[in-house]
Amino acid sequence: EVLDSVVDALNELTHDCYLLPRVHPRMKDFPDEFIPWQKALSKFRGRTVVDWFQQCTTSSLIAACAKRRGVVVSMFSTTLIEAATLKAPAISVMFPEYEKKYYRPECAFDLPVTALGCARKATSQQELHELLDAALTGQLDLELQQESHFKTDGKNAERCALKILSLM
Question: What pTM does this model have?
């Protein structure tokens, strides 16, 4: 369903782009999901659909996005955290109907990466379209928040230890 929404939004854009979809690792447990997955992919009107599956790691795709060559799109995933860490544009697709269908009410909270402003949250098809357009034109503006909250200076363990000590 999310891939279908992403394909629809990409088809509305005028940007020439590639779609590199990755299934969630647990999708192998739900083989019936490949039917709507392939149907959504078949609708993509971009120049090329590259269906990588196991040919390329998620980390290498995210790294390519971090070089401002793309955008990472997911629902509620560690992939968005990886994107924020690598300073890649990132969008969480969390329409209210998806939230109701896939998450229990007691888990209804924003993903910290979106709450911290390190990824944008699309809550409608129109918002997804606008965020994808902004990402593909370099206007998503997440870098300052990502740098602030996802430091990669090698001192994370030290910061954690100091925080724990301050709480004692």
Answer: 0.84
102 C-beta neighbours (distance < 10 Å), count: 13
pLDDT per residue as tens digits for the range 53-94: 566 677 777 777 777 668 999 988 888 999 999 899 999 999
CB 113 within 8 A of CB 90: yes
Taking residue 109's Cβ as centre, other Cβ atoms within 10 Å add up to 9
Distance CA(118)–CA(133), nearest Å, equals: 17
In sequence order, the 6+-apart residues with CB closer than 8 A to the CB of 154 are none
Burial per residue of 124-160, b for 16 or more beta-carbon CB atoms within 10 angstroms, e otherwise: eeebbbebbbbbbeeebebeeebeeebeeeeeeeeee
Site of tokens 């940007």: 15
Q: Cα separation of 134 and 140, whole Å?
A: 5
Residue 73, strand partner residues: 91
Neighbouring CB atoms inside 10 A of 75's CB total 18
At residue 19, the pLDDT reads: 85
Distance between CA 132 and CA 5 in Å, rounded? 12
Per-residue confidence (pLDDT) for residue 80, from 0 to 100: 93
